[in-house]
Design brief:
Length: about 425
């Protein structure tokens, strides 16, 4: 008897009830011996369950007379409906497998309920969402922020957030043959229209998976020979490696607070046969613990953020984030920005980056910084397809098939 649904509902339980990240839940729950095809199916249905969580859950709740207290059974029902609408599994197989899974979960008392509720939900042709949260599959507070920040674009952002994300590849500058669909403005960015990874190029260190919006970071910083450059919040290292690919003759210091994520950067550099000047296990907000006294010509500051611009890649974020997180993140961003500003030479450029579409983390953050730091001025950037802000530039999620990113150049006088 297959245990795919058993694993699937435990993954949802870990995310929804235990507030674990999806990638962590997948690695914890899925056994090593599981066939690659089964792993891929469970991962796909898990992602789709979380991407459309509010509407899928509303579909089965419609047929309950009172709230269902058992969270594992709740997740099994949601995981089951995701199979119909997002994995093309036949109705009879969905019901039979869900009842079998209830037995595996030792929830025999729920078999009749699951059988009845799923049959009714699957046959329901008249389902209508009753709240915006269900309609748009985002928490109410998130929708409120988007409406306030992007009154003309919020529905486009939400629609893009609920899509399966495109696959972008960054090739080495010297790659001889063309892959995918080239980006109109980024020489090394390629959209894989078949959504298939070029495993041979990745294993040979000739390519890296990186969204086109993220590839602007190193391009805008434009590393020149012998420049001292700091990548202050570097994991997983995609932007660091891009800087070194564009110019290996720089002195690049890479800072990452998390030891495991620092190891990811080391592994990535090794795969690409690149080397940094220093790999530092340290806190970007506390440079006193690692800074060696020589200021930097350029600083890349891709700060921790809500990740609201990459939620289509990480649908669990919609269920894990809370309004309070935005306040805490903006406070952390302020500390990191202030600390980094002291490490820049006069005439140097700091590139502030987030993968967020929330203005609190973006131009409002920079406006406050400029007010408190009169020796800094906005540095003009050329970013086609972005929305110019005051200050900075915003890629709106989905524009040009790219993720939502904010960029602002800051020049020290």
């Amino acid at each position: 008897m297959s245990k795919n649904r058993y694993y699937g509902c435990h993954i949802l339980y870990r995310v929804v009830v235990k507030h674990e990240h999806l990638k962590s839940a997948l690695s914890q729950i899925l056994p090593d011996h599981l066939e690659a095809q089964d792993k891929a199916w469970i991962q796909h249905v898990s992602y789709m369950s979380l991407r459309h969580y509010y509407s899928l859950t509303a579909r089965w709740q419609k047929f309950l007379h009172k709230p269902l207290k058992d969270q594992l059974v709740s997740q099994l029902l949601t995981f089951s409906l995701a199979q119909k609408f997002h994995a093309q599994v036949p109705d009879h197989a969905i019901v039979n497998e869900a009842v079998n899974t209830a037995q595996q979960l030792k929830k025999n008392w729920a078999k009749g309920l699951i059988n009845t509720v799923l049959k009714q939900s699957l046959a329901d042709q008249d389902f209508q969402t009753t709240t915006e949260q269900q309609q748009y599959n985002h928490p109410d507070w998130w929708l409120a922020m988007l409406k306030k920040d992007w009154p003309d674009n919020w529905t486009d952002i939400v629609r893009a957030n609920n899509q399966i994300p495109p696959l972008w590849i960054r090739s080495r500058p010297n790659l001889s043959h063309t892959i995918g669909q080239p980006h109109p403005h980024l020489a090394n960015a390629h959209l894989m229209t078949d959504n298939k990874l070029p495993h041979d190029l990745l294993s040979q260190g000739k390519a890296t998976v990186q969204d086109a919006a993220a590839q602007w970071a190193a391009t805008l910083l434009d590393p020149q020979d012998n420049e001292r450059i700091l990548d202050a919040c570097a994991a997983p290292g995609g932007k660091s490696s891009h800087l070194l690919e564009l110019n290996p003759n720089i002195q690049l210091d890479i800072v990452e607070q998390d030891q495991q994520r620092l190891q990811l950067i080391k592994d990535n550099l090794q795969r690409l046969d690149l080397s940094a000047h220093r790999l530092i296990h340290g806190d970007a907000a506390q440079p006193d613990t690692w800074y060696q006294g020589t200021k930097y010509d350029k600083i890349l500051l891709d700060v921790p953020c809500s990740a609201s611009g990459v939620v289509r890649r990480h649908p669990d974020i919609k269920l894990l984030r809370e309004p309070r997180d935005i306040m805490l993140l903006t406070q952390l961003q302020t500390r990191i920005l202030q600390a980094a500003a002291t490490l820049l030479v006069s005439g140097g450029v700091l590139l502030y980056v987030t993968c967020s579409v929330f203005r609190a983390e973006n131009e409002r953050q920079i406006k406050r910084f400029l007010k408190n730091n009169p020796d800094f001025k906005p540095h003009d950037l050329h970013l086609p397809d972005s929305e110019p802000q005051s200050p900075g530039y915003q890629f709106i999620t989905g524009t040009g098939d790219m993720d939502g990113f904010y960029y602002c150049g800051l020049k020290k006088s």
